[in-house]
Amino acid sequence: xxxxxxxMLKPAQKGKYAVGLFNAVNLELARGIIxxxxxxxxxxxMGTAEVLLPYGPLDEVSYYLIPMAKKANVPVVxxxxxxxxxxxxxxxxxxxxxxxxYDCSTDPYDVNVEKVKEMAxxxxxxxxxxxxxxxxxxxxEGSAEGSSQLADPSKYFTDPKMAKDFVEKTKVDALxxxxxxxxxxxKLPPKxxxxxxxxxxxxxxxxxxxxxxxxxxxxxxxxxxxxxxxxVNIFTDINIAAVKxxxxxxxxxxxxxxxxxxxxxxxxxxxxxxxxxxxxxxxKARQTVGLSDSYKEPI
Length: 299
Hints:
CATH class: Alpha Beta
Strand order of the largest sheet: 1-2-3-4-5-7-9-10
Largest sheet: 8 strands, parallel, barrel
Structural class: alpha/beta
Distance between the termini: 16 Å
Number of strands: 10
Number of helices: 11
């Protein structure tokens, strides 16, 4: 069933678990994500990001993401991650995405507030939810977001007092924070500022989002979620898992794409299941929809 982010993240925030967002730039990724969520009775968020649109145009991605979400036996949010342009965000809403992120984190604070506030009003008019970002989550070398390694990432960490002001002024439904996390694969183990996560969680009333989840340790995830993270974004891990599976299946030149597709879907499913279990969202599908009578627990 297709829902928006509030349907998922409010219960997650209260229940001290996190919902995973997994980008699905093709059908194999989407099939693996949905299969994992249904297998574990877990709510899930799937979508794409503006920087990924060269690999799967927004309208084409919507043709399979939204019908698959509606058909799924578990609650699914279809989300545009890191929307960088107003036009892209509006197009996603027009196509039926139930959630967007408008990332103006590199703009001056007042501009970030003004632009996100305007987009929040638009998203809410569509019945959709919106995520903003304060501070700036960096990019590891080779990430889909591009390479912009920060010499001193702490300069871009989210300030708790500004976070409260940002949420109150913009009316965002979720807030992405910068606490030592980065997009893409980490060359060295990241050092998350757990004290900052806890402080921000106590300062704002909206669910918090951790970007750059691929590569963090299990203990990092568990502690971050315990302290207030309600949504975790994953792409690199499932992207790599699919490719490794296809390489294993491609044993000779007489193989066709139909030999590779099942391998990729299964690998993505297995990787997503691991993350859902780690985030403690398994079995939480019913909580997502508030024990609605319309939800039938999948067998």
